[in-house]
Amino acid sequence: MFRRRKPEDDFAMAVYRRVAEQARAPELFETCGIPDTLDGRFDALALHAALMIDRLRREPDGEVLAQAFFDAMFKHLDLTLREIGIQDLGVGRRIKIMAEGLHGRALAYREALNGGSTPFVEVLRRNAYGGRSPEGAEMIARLEAHVRSYARTLEATARNDLIK
Q: Is 0.90 topped by the overall pTM?
C-alpha cells in the first residue's frame, strides 16, 4: 500500500496485459486445440509468458523487467483465483503450483526452441494442452507454427513496442 512503484512495474503490467490478451486468442482454442478450460487457459498463458520472459531478459535491465512481469502476472492470477471463489487458504498453494508449472514449462520451451534433445512439438504436446493431448497432429502443428511466429515477432520487436 505504501510501497513506491518502481518504473518497471507499469511497463511490466502493460506487457502482461498484452501477453494475456494474446494468450486468449480464439484461434489457440479453436484451431490449435488448446482446451478452453481453466487449465488450458493457464497453459496458453504460460506458453506466451515464457516466451515474453525470455524476450525481456535480453534487455540491459532484463532480469528486473522479467521479475516485474512475473510479479504482475501472479498478482493478476491471485486476484483471478479469489474472484472465482478459491478460499484464501487455497490461493497461496495454487499460486505456488502455478509458478512451479510456469517455471517448468518455460525451461522446456526454451530448451526445445534452442534445439534441445526433445522435439518442440513433443514439448508442446506435453505442456500446452491442459493435460489432454489433442486428437490430431495438425492442431499441434498449427500451435507450433503460431509459437515460432510469436517468438520471431518478439525477437524483432523493440522494447517499447512490446506493449502495443
A: yes
